[in-house]
Each structure stands twice: as C-alpha cells, then as structure tokens.
Amino acid sequence: MAKVLLINPNTRYLGSMMTILPPLGLLYIASTLKREGHEVKVVDADVENLSQAEVLKTARDYAPDLIGLTMNTLQSRAAYETVEQLKRAYDAPVIAGGPHPSALKGEVLERCPSLDAVVYGEGEATTLEILKAFEDGRDLADVEGICYRQGEKILTTEPRCLVDIDSLPHPALKLVAPIGRYHGAYPVGARPSLHIMASRGCPFQCTFCSKGIWERSLRLRKVDSVLAEVEWLRDRHSLLGRLLDRDRGVQTHCVPVYDYFPATSAPSEDLLSHEIVMGESDWDVLGPGWYGLERWPPVIRWTGKKATAYLKGQPGQVCLCIKATGSRVGPNLTISVNGNPPKAYKLEPDWAGILKVPLENGEGIIRLDLEVDETLLPRDFGEGDERELGVAVERIWLLGQK
User: Fold this and answer.
1) Which domain, by its residues, includes 142?
2) What is the distance between the alpha carbons of residues 346 and 52, in angstroms, rounded to a whole number?
3) Which residue, 295, 358, 354, 279, is CA-closest to 323?
4) DSSP per residue over 108-140, as a string?
5) In this structure, are residues 328 and 321 in contact, taking their beta carbons and an 8 Å threshold?
6) Residue 243 is inside which H or E element, if any?
7) What distance lies between CA 81 and its chain's CA centroid?
8) Residue-wise pLDDT tens digits, 190-219
9) Which of 40, 77, 323, 385 would disulfide-bridge 352, Cβ 3.0–4.6 Å?
C-alpha cells in the first residue's frame, strides 16, 4: 500500500498562525486513506511553526508516494512556495485541495506549475482515486472532481457526486496529537477545543460566502452518527467541553447531544425561537453566544460616536449580553422598549454582563442607544454615517439563557 503525506502550510508570515483548530478536512482524508490500508502522515506546519527546510526534511525522511496540501486563500502563498520547493527536492506527485483550489481550479495550476492536480469539492473519495491512478500508472482523466495537467493543457473532469457524510470514518486526530496545542475558535473555558462535522452545506444564501462552489445543498449527519463521534472523543481522546451549533441543527439535532456536553449555542439570528431566547427549551443555552445585530432590521444608524439599533423582540424577556472593550471609557447604553422612557446603563471599561429587557404585552420594539469609545470605531466613520455593522457594535451579543 502507498504512503501519503498531507500538509497544512505554515502561515506565520501573516503575523500569527491561522491554525486554531485541527485541520479537519485533511484528517477526514487521512482516515479515509487509512481505512483502505494506506499509510498516512499529517504535518501541521502552521501549528508546529515549521520552516520550509523542516517540511522538506520530513518529506525526504518519510518518502511518500503522494503529497497533498490543503489551502484556503490566505494559505495559498505559503502553499505555492511549499509545493515548488517540494517538487525541486523530491520526486513525488503533489496535489492540493481545499476552498481556494475548489474556487479557482485552473488558475491555481497556472500559478503553481509544480502542482500535478487540484481537487475541487469534497476530497475524501477523490484523493483515494488519485492515489490509485498514480499507483496503477493510469491517466487522471477518469477521476471525477479534479483539475489536472495533460501535457501543456489544463483539463477539468466532471464534478464528483457528494458523499454520504455518515459513511466517513472519524477524523484521524492522533495524526496531529497532542490536541491540546489547538486553542480553538471560541471561549469554551478549557483546551482543547475541537469542532465536529455535523453537516455540510448551508441553508442560507449569503452573497459574500464561498458556498456556491460547494453546491447549494445542505446535508445533515444522523443524530446517532454525531453521538457516536462525541462518545469517541470523550472515551478515546478524553475530551469534554462545550458544543457550538450555528445552523438549523440547533433546533432539531441538539437535545440528545447536550446529554454529553454542556452547550454554548450560537444559532443564526433568524433561527432564534421564543423558547431558545427565553430558555424554556428542554436544554440549557449557556453563553455567551455571538449574534450580529445586522440581522435585526433596520440597519444601525451612527451619529458621531453614537449608534442606535432597533430590535424586534420575541414575546416575554430578551437577554442582551453586552461586552465593553473600550481602552479608556466603556460604552454608555440606554434601552427603551415600545417608546417608554429609556433606562441608562453606565458600563465600565472591559465590563461584560447580561441585561434583561422585559417585553410586556407580547412582542416589543427595543431601542438601543450606544455611545462608544471612538477608538473602537473605524477611522472613516463620519457624522450621520449609516452602516450594517461597526466594530464597536460587534461587541453586542444577543443571548438566550436560563
């Protein structure tokens, strides 16, 4: 069987490492290859802060039959440099996958002549087929979901059908151990912090998102499948922590999972229900959860250092989790409901807490008037400026909590 080296590029040239979670895409590919009997090594050059020379030494020492790299757009520069040096120093096919090659396919091959092929879309089955083709000495034309070289030409094969995500083996986390060096993306209280792939795709249609290159579909794993992975993380890797869910699964999939983990839940704003906001569901919603006010019309209106936002609250009581991050003076906040006289709050620098706003007689309109430290505002903010979201108001969270 073949030996495969998978690399997450070092991006320290950006000023800090990008890798705060294990490279889940590479680890699913690794576990798929291992299930078929192949030997796999994963090098996370970012979290290990490896130089190009150290990556090359690893490749020489390991002597793989195939090398694969992942890259998003911010990783592309580092990935290109790594590929070029690998090709000059070591004679093995090199492929790349991830969001950037999936979006730009042929352009990636043009910009990086040393790449033999790129994988677009999901990479588990495609990487396995590429490996088999190289092992058998076959042309890559029959491998779906790739862009490859044929002489001077760059050719793209047909897209690969989406995989059954419940059929994928658990990610090969042992290949990037120790897990504790990944500090995670959310303040869950303790390391390590990991993410679980409970779905692929998204039900929303945000125009700025790269979702279009992954096909506009949503696939959810079965609850039993997610629970099996949670148990595996707990029993095999001794991981306990909090669970975050940002899609529709928060309303349909979470209750059984929360028997295993306390939950920090951050669903999209338009999925918030009265039960979730009021903490009347069967499971706890612990905070803080991050909710952008730009999803609650109308847009925030700025006047100098002041911002005003109107929220349409659910019946009952809405909790506002406010965090003041001013370097000198914290925000001054007034809240009024349905036109009633406002109540003022003086927030000290670096203050964080929960303000409960009662909404009587059903739904209510909440008006927030926020005066912030000008150092938190973008430099180009002007008098009467009106925008969807500013860095200062980004500190305001909506929170459902028992």
Assistant:
1) 3-156
2) 52
3) 354
4) HHHH-TT--EEE-S--HHHHHHHHHHHHHT--G
5) no
6) none
7) 25
8) 556 677 888 888 777 666 676 666 666 788
9) 323
